[in-house]
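From the shared-data thread, chain only:
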Amino acid sequence: MKPVKVGLLGLGTVGCGVVNVVARNASEIRRRAGRGIDIVSASARNLARRRECELSGIELTTDPSIIINDPEIQVVLELIGGIEPARTLVLGAVENRKHVVTANKALIALHGNEIFARASEKGVTVAFEAAVGGGIPIIKAIREALSGNTIEWLAGIINGTGNFILTEMRDKGRDFADVLAEAQRLGYAEADPTFDVEGIDAAHKLTILASIAFGIPLQFDRVYTEGITRITAKDVRNAAELGYRIKHLGIARRQGEGIELRVHPALIPHRRLLANVDGVMNAVLVRGDAVGPTLYYGPGAGAEPTASAVVADLVDVTRDLTVDPTNRVPHLAFQPDALVDLPVLPISQAISAYYLHLRAFDRPGVLADITRILGERKISIEAVLQPQPEEGAKDASIVILTAPVRESHIDEAITAIQSLDALTVPLTRIRVETLK
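Structure, as tokens:
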């Protein structure tokens, strides 16, 4: 059988990684796919740039439209990133009845509903394993391996930059700004790190995971998103003293008749496997009703880890070329006409325990006022930590761990506590997730 002809859009880090993996593992790929896979053309904005891949035998162009309109090309790899021109190019390839493989989480999270609907009409596949978790096969695991389960919840560390920063803050006692600067020097963080440290990148990925887990449309605009920029070295130390570690989590959970979708920092008991995922590594914990909890761990980015997922999608698409479109694995795990638009619950309805860190004047009655405010709202206290004040300081730290409570109730309590004239700085609130 003739090899499948592939066109590659984008020759950056991941694009070159794909070229290298396809060339190095050509015989293994052929054995798995049943036929060869040949990258015959590639586009890039700057063809003169030095690249870490062998491009001989690949026709190069600066015009990606040549690739998506080439009748010989059966599969298009979109590795440009961003929304435009990626969206236009992907839709153009689909219109020309070409299969598409992409690593573009923002594109899928924001425009996946449109893209998948068009792909279904044209009888082609849009594969996106590399969009979440780099080389971790989390999409395939939820969509296929766990298809016999009702997914109850999932929680993941799905941004390596944020995880690196929090790990360094914990291990070396460094401040956020200092570690962020190092992450930028090492290439883990962009010059503008907003997408990583404010949780936007993780929210893109959580949108995709929730859709395939619960059979709901992609709804990025409904994800509650909170970053890690306000986490201090003191918060990290306090968490450790209480037996917790702070991680930046993406959480999707069934609750009643709706779905929680939230990205935020959280305290996790230090013995939990997810609490011990360090550096730039990613991990996703998924709980199914039949299998129970399963953990997926690995590199969340990088040239060849991401290329591993892209090539796996290429193999799947190659296998599907002769399969009737109605018998292929659905894009979002559930049949298109079986997606259910369950409501995404506001963060005010989420239930969690809370870490509260206050600084207040060191005088009698302050702690009593705080516990009274919590008690009036039936918020139980699990632990209190009151470190010795620093010599000469006029204020002191108070750390409180609460029992699980609805977020709207803790919001009311925080508003009342903030109104006390004893507080010297705004209160810090971090959610606590036991992951049971």
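The longest strand covers residues 244-255.
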